[in-house]
Amino acid sequence: MNKIEHIGIAVSNLEEAIKTWETLLSTPCYKREAVESEKVDTAFFQTGESKVELLGATSEQSVIHSFIEKRGQGLHHVAFEVDDIRAEMQRLREAGFRLLQEEPKRGADNKLIAFVHPKNSTGVLMELCQSMPESE
């Protein structure tokens, strides 16, 4: 794992959260993106070499909606940049970690992603991220 790529924060009102985080970080949201497969809208902020990703549900069937219903707004996941997501997933499986998917899937910000179950990572949902070439 190379570095923390971003921190994901679940929010109940994305528009209001964007205003709050623009003021807090003193920087504008540089990218918004819908991830239809996850039923979520995202907003990204660059801070140093890392990013903050705000996640707003677009449906009651969204995992973000369920998360907020159970836990309220707040930290959803910590994402780590990896060079080879499949190799990292295999390494973690062999070390006894449970992954939430068998294969990486397309996420926001042109990334392949996979999640490690929070019960295996001291209660924190962990995301693996690998950048995809712009042509994919």
From TrEMBL:
Which terms does the record give in the GO molecular function aspect?
A: lactoylglutathione lyase activity; metal ion binding; methylmalonyl-CoA epimerase activity
The residues covered by the VOC domain are 3-131
Q: Which InterPro entries match?
A: Glyas_Bleomycin-R_OHBP_Dase, Glyoxalase_1_CS, MeMalonyl-CoA_epimerase, MMCE/EMCE_epimerase, VOC_core
Q: Which CDD domains match?
A: MMCE
Keyword Magnesium assigned: no
Question: Which portions of this protein are annotated as coiled-coil regions?
Answer: none
Which keywords label this protein?
A: Isomerase, Metal-binding
Q: What is its EC number?
A: 5.1.99.1
Instruction: Name the Gene Ontology biological process terms.
Output: L-methylmalonyl-CoA metabolic process
Kindly give the PANTHER family that the UniProt entry links to this protein: METHYLMALONYL-COA EPIMERASE, METHYLMALONYL-COA EPIMERASE, MITOCHONDRIAL
Q: Which family does it belong to?
A: Belongs to the methylmalonyl-CoA epimerase family.
This one is known as: Methylmalonyl-CoA epimerase
